[in-house]
């Protein structure tokens, strides 16, 4: 979403436009799709790029230290626009759930504040605020409606998130998510598979199963092998070509999941598994109930069954009490793990978490110095791992994102089975693939953070897909895209998508 809000023509109440700004994790991205679907079902339309919307919704994150500063900075920029034009502003997500009344104290011009447990109330709260001409706030302490039963508007045609659980039963000392999202709640397998089928029926060829800890799925209904069974069931859905999931917890990662990944053809050879620290002492202080040896053992088993698998991770640098020896342990585990990439974070204390009250908070300059060393190590490993793919042939799912230099180079972009990003050129005389189609290309060059393919005509193959057909329909119907509900017996057009997430600076 653009940060610039420009003038637009006056709209009537019946054609209010909206914009959703999303911060944070995949769960927030998934929630924003639901927010957009709810608004469109209520009669709103998405604001054109660069236009001033009638409604701006901030879907917030509370994990990073600067989350509140970023939110209130953006809110202050909108205040004069609201005063002049009368737009509505809503704040939801984890920061709203955490701060509650504090949002209106710091930004009294906000119209609606809603939490993570009552996304479905947003249209009603907006209408109440307009009618009463005052702010409307509603924060529930327990989940009101499972998010995936709400309408959805997705951002691209070929891929979609499917939430299999919400909440978390772990007690990691650095994490505020359990107190904001609540205890783990699992959807029944039939509901999950019904949503996956609905997406495939609408043209999707890829889904990502989403949960705070996806591999503990089934704890609520007492089946410890439920996640592996769900992966295998996805393998039976005709037309579903790629299945991914995020994020598993190493402590609960079992061999039946590895077997299901290796034996189910449409489950991709990709694993995102958070390490957080390579030091056993720090992992214990974090209340992460695994140790470095177990983590590396899981990776060994995954690679024995799937040698081509790419593993990515999350790492926190500078957790309270982390010594130089602890940090060196992390560096050793990272070197041994050979991650394809890593989301690396400098620890920041979050009020309300046990770690924020711990002694031995690490000085900022020490954390920064270690952070730079870790980045240098991981960047080297990423480049080395990318180089091993030079000369291989990969089938790519073509995306709508051309990359930052796509218009200059003429290359398109796609994702390999292991989710690596590949920029590729289309040879003269070859058909141009659509987003959602598949291309088979040789990897001709490995860059530091992506792969390149400049194939000859004889080495380039295009496979058209239902997602490419859906892209054509979407383009033809660009005046608007419908929403869908998986419990509806009336199919509707839907824009399906897996957003690109980038690590925060």
Summarize this structure briefly:
This protein has 505 residues and is of the alpha/beta class. The protein has 15 helices and 21 strands.
Describe the structure.
- The protein has 505 residues and is an alpha/beta fold.
- 33% of the residues lie in helices and 18% in strands.
- The strands form five sheets. The protein has a seven-stranded mixed β-sheet. Strands 2-1-3-4-5-6 form a six-stranded parallel β-sheet, sandwiched between helices.
- α8 packs parallel to α9 and α12 runs parallel beside α13 (364-387).
Q: What is the terminal separation in angstroms?
A: 18 Å
| Total helical elements | 15
Uncertain residue segments: 1-13, 479-505
Average pLDDT figure: 86
Instruction: Please indicate the percent range of residues in DSSP E strands (runs of 2 or more).
Output: 15-25%
- What's the total count of β strands? 21
Main sheet properties: 7 strands, mixed
Gross morphology is globular
Radius of gyration: 23 Å
Helix content: 25-40%
Q: Pairing-aware structural class of the strands and helices?
A: alpha/beta
- Major sheet strand order: 19-20-17-16-15-18-21
